[in-house]
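Service request form, structural biology core

Requester: graduate student, group of Dr. S.
Request type: structure prediction, single chain
Budget code: on file
Notes: please return the result as structure tokens.

Sequence provided:
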Amino acid sequence: MTADALGRAVVGVTEEEVFTAYVGEHLPRLRRLAYLMCGDEHRADDVVQIAITRLFTHWRKARAARDLDAYVRTIVVRTFLNEHRRRWSLVRLVGRPAELPREPSAPPPDVETREVVWSALRRLPPPARAVLVLRFVADLPVAEVATTLGCSESSVKNRTAQGLLALRRLLGGAGR
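Core staff response, request fulfilled:
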């Protein structure tokens, strides 16, 4: 449900309540998108938190957008790219924190292959990683990825080809 539909469904609802309902409904999807780009749950949570804060400050403009979901996705992707550029993002902690309990789910068909691909994907530069995640995991068309990243469609196609080539090299496959 869009924010406007939420606002129209209940009379007398404040903007903050509409915002809270929208974020509550879309938070899992936003966290998944951020996690796929970051490869780290904690960084993904930070990216989503910053993105939601930015969304709140621009909520009226966001609600007026033609496609609110695309607008919010753009904020998340650009937040990820901006946070990676900051110097503090290069700091790495030693060791791993204790794993949080997860909800049980069916394991993917080939766990080893998935881990190898995710490891290679995390080694790509963030712009290439963002393009590949948006194109092949979020399954967005080239035009929507271009809008999200603020670049041309030919740039998205070029970054996709270069990212896939780099991914093949990292996975030990033959490049073109």
